[in-house]
Specification:
Blueprint (H helix, E strand, L loop, with lengths): L7 H14 L7 H4 L3 H23 L5 H13 L5 E11 L8 H4 L8 E8 L5 E9 L4 H7 L4 H4 L8 E3 L2 E3 L3 E3 L10 E2 L8 H27 L12 H22 L29 H11 L2 H26 L1
Helix pairs in contact: 1-3, 3-9, 8-11
Length: 325
């Protein structure tokens, strides 16, 4: 007809407004003069395009340079070897299929929710995101379905070496809630601490673990679509929406990272590698894969690491108190 249609800028603006404010698609009509159906399709296309182009960079696994940086920060926070924190968040699903009510509705929340498992570092960068599990699963069941340790099982993770109380370790650990299993990759709090050493450890561990809880609040404040109940989307579209929100969140973190208290450049870490890890397409040897699984599930290593961390933190605390006196 010879008439100009909607520009790509208009469609991208509509998509970002829907993600940022969590509004319905017909709310952008008065501001951008765009129809409800067109706004919804623009938002879906925007999410698919951003995920396809930027996923490899902003939803990547940690490289060797990233691990070196996280280890330096962990040492400064009195937890040598600590990489990140892991936890789960619930996102309400309003217009869900009725026949799925028994799967996605749990007595605690009384509404259907989808679980998001995330791994976050000190700067609120999300290194791992796994969504789509129903609300009837707890954190352990989500962990069994999650690929968070898959690359470690296949021997594709960067090197992670640190020393605690004179003992050398080559597996980094995550801070987690008490519901998580006693694996070598998890350091949990101490229930009902009685002595001063345990109370100090609980205080420091819970303070650092709040990184992932704070990240959930920041993500919801930046993108209101994941804060309120979602509408008019199927399960696959919800997964795409949460991915694009995480990618945009990591972009913001990368832009603001220089203003953080523990900010520094990669070049400050001696021997760090900037290149990404080389991925392998074939499945590793079963024997090596099995040994990696046994190494992570080692209960004795979990207990020793937590005990040594208590002693290390208590030693640093007493040394700091003595220097102040």
């Amino acid at each position: 007809m010879g008439r100009r249609g909607l520009s790509p800028l208009t469609k991208c603006t509509a998509a970002i407004r829907i993600l940022a404010y969590g509004i319905s698609t017909d709310c952008v009509d008065e501001y951008l003069k765009i129809g409800e159906f067109t706004a919804m399709e623009s938002m879906k296309n925007f999410a698919a395009g951003v995920t396809q182009v930027f996923r490899e960079e902003y939803l990547r696994k940690p490289t060797q340079a990233d691990v070196d940086r996280l280890l330096v920060v962990a040492e400064a926070r009195d937890f040598p070897g600590m990489l990140e924190s892991i936890d789960c968040m619930h996102w309400e699903w309003k217009n869900y299929p009725t026949e799925w009510k028994g799967t996605f509705v749990k007595g605690i929340y009384r509404v259907p929710t989808i679980i998001l498992e995330a791994v976050t570092s000190y700067d609120l960068w999300i290194w791992h995101a796994f969504s789509g599990c129903p609300d009837t699963l707890d954190d352990i069941n989500v962990l069994d379905r999650s690929p968070v340790f898959q690359e470690f099982y296949e021997g594709q993770t960067p090197k992670c070496r640190y020393v605690v109380k004179g003992r050398k370790y080559n597996i980094g650990y995550y801070f987690s809630d008490g519901v998580y299993p006693r694996w070598a990759t998890f350091v949990k709090t101490v229930p009902f601490p009685q002595i001063a050493k345990d109370r100090l450890f609980v205080e420091r561990q819970e303070a650092v673990k709040k990184d992932v809880e704070r990240e959930f609040r920041v993500l919801q404040s930046r993108f209101a679509i994941v804060r309120g109940p979602t509408r008019n989307m199927d399960r696959a579209e919800l997964g795409m929406i949460i991915k694009v929100c995480i990618i945009l969140h990591n972009m913001i973190v990368e832009d603001e990272r220089d203003s953080y208290d523990l900010a520094f450049e990669y070049e400050d870490v001696e021997g760090s590698i900037q290149e990404p890890i080389v991925r392998r397409d074939h499945h590793p040897c079963y024997v090596a894969y099995y040994h990696k699984v046994v190494q992570i599930h080692d209960l004795e290593l979990h207990a020793c690491l937590q005990s040594y961390l208590k002693q290390e933190i208590w030693k640093r605390h007493t040394a700091q108190q003595g220097s102040q006196l």
